[in-house]
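re the bet — no i am not wrong, look at it urself. input seq straight from the record:
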Amino acid sequence: MKNKFSIHLMIACAMSTFSLAQAQQKQPKKFSIAVLPDTQYYTAESQGGDVSLFESQIKWILANSKAENIAYTIHLGDITDHGDNKPKEWELASKAMYALEAPLPGLADGMPYGLAIGNHDQVASQFAKSGRTDGYNKYFGVDHFKKKSYYGGHFGSDNDSHYDLFKAHGQSFIVIYIEYDAFDEQQDQMNDWAAGLLEKYADHKAIVVCHYTLFPNKTAGTNQGEMAPFGKQASRIYNRLKVYPNLVAMLGGHVGDNGEGYRQDTYGGNTVRSFLSDYQSRAMGGNGMMRLMTFDLDQDKISIKTFSPYHDYEEIDDDSRFEVPLFRNPSGSRIYDFDGDGKSDLLSYRNGNWMNIDNKLKFSNWNAKGVPVATYRNRNGRTEPLVYQLEKGNFIAKDGLTLPFGKAGDIPVPADYDGDGIADLAVWEAKTAQWMIEGKEMFTHGWEESLPVPADYDGDGAAEIAVWRFQNNTWYIQDVGNVPFGEKGDVPVPADYNGDGRAEIAVWRPSTGEWLILGMERSIKLGKKGDLPIPGDYFVDGKVQPAVFDPDAKLIRFYNGQTKSWDVKSQDIVNLPYVIKKYYLDLLSNAK
């Protein structure tokens, strides 16, 4: 009995360990950053506000630190309203913020946090060098933070500009605070200091906090209109730091009124997302509004929640609760991601219905007779289903809205031609090689015997107008150059195959089953003549991978050897642009 009990116990323990390991593996890689906008009227106890609103924010952070996996807290500046002129405001601010420093499980120094200097924290206001910040440095200076494990260091002799370090789910982050400097007393020096940090901590993803980063969105309640403009100092910061691929976000407050803004800027294949949140113009000096930014490393997205713990209220308009991509973009490797999980989805289209790989209805443009167009008309990173009516020259949106554009016989080629994160409606006329792009004048690029292949080839976030001329196998990319690549019978498949945020010139060669990608030493052997190339990021590794659909076996073959059944016809598959798919299927048909 003893031996039998021991065996049963060992098996039970092993099963428990295995179940625990499975549970740990299934845990999503998500963490959050709490963001506190301008608290000046809470500490000044004016404009209907008082410190209880500030305290309610801190209490919420502590009460929800485990449930929301809050790894760090950012204060956007204007901690006080009168700076050194009203010492009591600093006393109230320190009392509220110091509550974060009580030890938490696994955090001996409490909740890691940092605070930006705003113009109301300076005397004289807006002067970074000559202005005094004695109150800030008394309560939040170098001496206060220097022994905390997350504190990195500071610029100059005080803590007005400083940086912190933290890690979440194996990803290291650096948060750099740059003091508000409206009169440019030392912007270049601070920016050079920040650049040095980005070089030193090249393996850390970086968030830069400057009190005045953005103006509000041009249209309140949405991030979909014209992007929020940079403030002057933030523009200088971005242009100095954009060359560093580890910079991912910029945050600020300062500007009330609507008090919300968003923009994205891409350079060298890396996109920086900037956020404004400031509610000081609301009732009670801000209503205790704050934000929670949830970073989902698995699905590559940031989810924004804007709410007031004091009032138990959440703001749910489209610039208060929204999602944006984290590291990757639709202009790069994030293609055919219809559900926003960072993974390319496999869809087919027939008779107005978009079906997933399990042959279940995903979307329906029931009244639209046309060809499927997978594009993105929203800055949330999700692909959206459009249909183009070739006989009428209309785009049909997923909500049934008709968008007249072009004329009968035009080819749909929507893409983000201006780099604002939203695909522009566009069509190409094969006979004249004329391009018609939303918001631009018509122009000619290409030949009748060529294929339109627009993509972001230089990594600036905007798709280049381009064609592949199959008469001489040359890629003609406007404002970039002409590149001979491929041979007769090849199929152009440009995409971001190495994850650098740029589309690579690439072809699939049906005669040999080779994928030839410019810049890669070796070709990839996958597929055969008759298969359909359907590249995508099917394994969420930040790179587009080769894949083919075998219509005879009804099977998808992935680059890593995996396969998946799919009962569909090649002509119905969405995962290859219509004009390229038609070109290839016509080649096959003519060869018979």
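see?? Residues 2-26 form the longest helix (25 residues). told u. also The first strand starts at residue 30 and ends at 36. so pay up
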